[in-house]
């Protein structure tokens, strides 16, 4: 399990998404930094089909909902 700790205000753009550094903790309390999607800019794809998920959600099921349909 990974626990959110903090974000940094620097953001970068990659093809179709804005990324933001996020500091997280693992179950042992170790800190590490990851790039997290802050916002999707263009369409995303899964197995060749358009797939546009939410950037954030209250559950994994909600996060995986394809807003393109």
Verbal overview:
- By secondary structure, this protein is mainly beta.
- It has one domain.
- It has one helix spanning 60-63; strands at 2-7, 12-14, 17-26, 31-40, 45-46, 49-50.
- The strands form 2 sheets. Strands 1, 2, 3 and 4 form a 4-stranded antiparallel β-sheet that branches.
- A hairpin with a 4-residue loop joins β3 and β4.
- The termini are far apart.
List the helices and strands and how they pair.
Blueprint: E1 2-7, E2 12-14, E3 17-26, E4 31-40, E5 45-46, E6 49-50, H1 60-63
Antiparallel strand pairs: 1-3, 2-3, 3-4, 5-6
Q: Outline of this structure?
A:
It is built from one helix and six strands.
Q: For the report, how would you describe the main beta sheet? A: 4 strands, antiparallel
SS class: mainly beta
Order of helices and strands: EEEEEEH
- Total number of helices: 1
In helices, the fraction of residues equals: under 10%
> Could you list the spans in which at least 5 consecutive residues all have pLDDT below 50?
none
The percent range for strand residues is: over 45%
Using the CA coordinates, give the radius of gyration: 14 Å
Shape: globular
Distance between the termini: 31 Å
